[in-house]
Every structure is written in C-alpha cells, then in structure tokens.
Amino acid sequence: MKFPLTRDQHLELYYYMRLNRSLEEHMVRLFRQNKIVGGLYSSLGQEATSVGTTCALERRDWMAPMIRNLGGLLVKGVAPRAIFAQHMARYTSPTLGKDGTSHFGDLENLHIVSPISMLGDLIPVMAGLAIAGRYLGQKIVAMTWIGDGGSSTGAFHEGMNFAASQGAPLVLVIENNQWAYSTPVGRQVPVKNLADRAKAYGVNSYIVDGNDVVAVYQTAKEAVERCRAGEGPVVIEAKTMRMKGHAQHDPADYVPKEMVDYWQALDPIARYEKYLTEKKLWDSKVKADMDAQIERLILEEQEAAESAPFPPPELAEQGVYCDGCHEIKARWERPIKEVTPPGASVKPEWKVEGLGGMDEAAAITRLTAGNSSGDGARRATVKPAKKSRPAGRAKVPAHLKGRR
C-alpha cells in the first residue's frame, strides 16, 4: 500500500460512508413527508467514491461537489444539520432558505465551491481556481466530479483542454455510475473506459473500482500528490453504480434486474465491513458503537434543522446583488514581486518542441547538416508574427505581376 492507512483512518472511511447513507435514508423519509422542498438525488451505492476521493485532500485543498457527493461534503466538514436545513429550505441553511437542493458552498472556511447545474461547467471553474492557487503560491489541489453523461458535454472537453494546456493541479473524478438519467453508458459513449478520454489532452488517468473505498482513497491520494508536485491534471474514472433513479421521482424501471443484483452484491459499505473484520481492524462492539453514534447524531441534527424557522419574506430582496457586503481579496502566500514586472517579465517568444510534420527525422537530418548540436532543429524559437499588410495592399505573387 503506497499510502498506508492507520486504524483510525480506516475507521474514519467507514464512519463517513455510513454517515452519508444514514443521512440520505432520513432525507428520503422527509421527502415522503413533503418536508423536502426541492429535489433529492440519492448516492446509494456511490458512497465509497465521494468519501474515498475527498479523504485524499488536505484542509487547504478545494472541492466542488455534484448532487451525489454528500459524502464529500461531510468529509470536508459540513454538518448534517446544514444539509438537512438546506433541503428543507430553512433560514439556518447555508443559503438562508433560498435554495432547496445542494447549491451551496463555503469559500471562506471549508474551501467548497457550490455545484453548478449545467453539468461540466465546474471543470473549467476548478481549473481556473487551481491555477489561481498556484499563482498565489498556495500549493493547493482542486477536485471536482462529473458523471458519465456529463463527460460528453462541451464544457467537459473545453475544461480538460484548458486544464491540460495550463498544467492545472486539478483532479477530475468521473463517476461512471452506468446511467446518464435513463441512457446506459454504452449508448452514449463509444469507448469502454471513460478514462481514455484523458489521452486526447495528454493527461494522466486512472481507472478504479469505485465501490472499494480503500482503492479509491489510494488512487485519489496518488493523483493529488502528482498534482501538487506539478505534474498537471489527473483524471480518475471510478466504476460504480447508481442504485436508485435519477431522483426520487424516478423509479428506474429501465435498469435490468440482473444489473441491480450484480451491483448490490458489490455494495461498498457491506464490502468494507467485511474488509475491516478480516483485517481485524474492529469487532462487533466497535461497529455497534459507531453505528449508534451515527444514528444519534443524525437524529439530533435532523431535529435541529426541522425546528429551525423558514426565512422571513423580506429576505427575498436581500443578497441578490453584492453592494460592498464583503471584500474580495487574494490570499498571497508568495512575494507578489515574483509574479509582477520586472521580476516576472519574459521575452515574447516560445520554445517549440519538434517541427510538427509527419516525417521529422528526415527534416532534422537535412536541417542539422553542418550543425553538430542540432539544437536549432529540435528546439525552434518562434517569435510572434509581424503585423499583416493593410487591407488593399496585399503582396502580388511573382507569376501574376503584370497581369490585370
């Protein structure tokens, strides 16, 4: 194991997966009681992916979850009562009751960027955030998630190209949960492994069993460390399964029973319970105590959220536009002079690797004749193009001179 886990870390993985599932089970009941104001999107069966990847981050790192990443929010430090209150649109929620789903973040303390409903848009946002952190000397890593369906959006490809060309310290987790709403992966993507899409941008990638929380953590930890070391972005494809419909209104009748049975046997929490027992990392008493602790916490947090008031009517006109309500200031962790002129001045020219042709070997042989180093052919210096001629004064080709 490249990144060995302590016993406490092993138990922490279980704690957050179990907390994730218990939280959602209680929210399903609230939804059926018409206490959930907005939509409810289950992550049943995907807990290991959210928890395992987020546990690989450090406190200083940033994350941007999607609707099925409640486990990641819990790991980052969001209290269950905040999630309950958010979905019940209470005044004590992160958005003060103005949103009934998971559109909330915490930029100041927890380094969480709010989900964006237009799938794929988080990728360029988090790539930009990662680049900004590098510019400020913060040595952070940014992480976000995308589903199998969302990996076909234009924003996914534009964001990946941007992150790759800039070497952004970004970890993108593709949660291949087999269904883009009711469309199976094989009907919308002509490749077996979605991680292969990273090759188009020269980006490193991994494929991992998304229902094995230890494997997910190990893979994500390696990806995070590679990003922090300056190796550019990394894509992780976690193969898992969405065990419920797209949302509570969707019975998922389109999913074959054989597929449901197959993935139920690979339930991430049941598998990890067996792992902890076989490795003698806990016993029945430790498990019972943890489960009871989680249930008590969930009940207390739910009660606190349910007893909270709804937002007052006058709140509707507040917070719509920022009019000096807060200050936006960069957190510099490096001398500013390092990235400002004259210290940051560079010549307006670029080093080009290779010649860009099909048969470069023959070209290099010709161009390096008489040049012992050959450096001029292998590393050509390209300067910005000169200004074009004004309109109406185009240069006339020699063979056309004299003709009208």
Q: Could you please describe the fold and organization of this structure?
A:
It is a single chain. This protein folds into two domains: 7-317, Thiamin diphosphate (ThDP)-binding fold, Pyr/PP domains (Rossmann fold, 3-Layer(aba) Sandwich); 347-388, no CATH class. Helix 6 links the parallel strand 2 and strand 3 (170-176). Strands 1-2-3-7-6 form a five-stranded parallel sheet, sandwiched between helices. The longest helix is centred in the first third of the chain and has 26 residues, at 7-32. The chain has 13 helices and nine strands. The model has no long low-confidence stretch (mean pLDDT 91). With 404 residues, it is an alpha/beta fold.
Helix content: 25-40%
Number of contiguous helices:
13
Number of strands: 9
- The class by helix and strand makeup works out as alpha/beta
- Looking at this structure, what is the CATH superfamily of the largest domain? Thiamin diphosphate (ThDP)-binding fold, Pyr/PP domains
CATH secondary-structure class of the largest domain: Alpha Beta
| Gap from first CA to last CA | 78 Å
Number of self-contained structural domains: 2
CATH architecture of the largest domain: 3-Layer(aba) Sandwich
